[in-house]
Amino acid sequence: QVQVMEYGGGLVQPGGSLRLSCAASGSISRINDMGWYRQAPGKHRELVAAITRGGSTNYADSVKGRFTISRDDAKNTVYLQMNSLKPEDTAVYYCNAELYTTSWSRGLYWGQGTQVTVSS
Questions:
Q1: Structure confidence at residue 14 as a pLDDT band (50, 70, 90)
Q2: Do residues 47 and 33 lie in contact, with contact meaning Cβ atoms separated by under 8 Å?
Q3: Could you read off the pLDDT of 52-97 as tens digits, one per residue?
Q4: 25 in helix, strand or coil?
Q5: Band of the pLDDT at 15, cuts 50, 70, 90?
Q6: How far apart are CA 98 and CA 101, in angstroms?
Q7: Cβ(60)–Cβ(36) under 8 Å?
Q8: pLDDT recorded at residue 29
């Protein structure tokens, strides 16, 4: 069994900051890529940022220079530091992890999502 859980969402004013965390737990042998996605009401889910096991990162153009993704492999955790938040960043944020289980089955696992609301 593998679980992926996000933490850290909430309400923040425009220009503020939030840090999201996402921890994978359970029967995990190795985690490869990890990423953050978001889905606003009436819109498709979109990639926000991703990070490989080697530390290479990729960001959506809309968040470059404002968001930073990082990971701690000792904790099976990925973070998303969000600065200079804008109302258009309001969405449910989802984390995913591409990993191998202890039986070396490979799969993509998603968290349940955490709401981020940017509003005055």
A1: very high
A2: no
A3: 999 999 999 999 999 999 999 999 999 999 999 999 999 999 999 9
A4: strand
A5: very high
A6: 10
A7: no
A8: 94
Distance CA 83, CA 89 (A): 11
Give CA–CA dist 39/92, Å, rounded: 5
Tokens representing 82?
A: 């969000």
Distance CA 65, CA 82 (A): 10
Q: Can you say whether the dihedral through the CA atoms of 106, 20, 41, 51 is positive or negative?
A: negative
Is residue 28 a contact partner of residue 2, using CB atoms and an 8 Å limit?
Answer: yes
- Alpha-carbon distance of 6 to 9, in angstroms, equals 8
Q: What integer pLDDT is reported at residue 100 of this predicted model? A: 93
Cβ atoms of 31 and 97 closer than 8 Å = yes
Residue 23 in contact with residue 34, Cβ under 8 Å?
no
Tokens of 31: 């985690």
Q: How far apart are CA 115 and CA 111, in angstroms?
A: 12
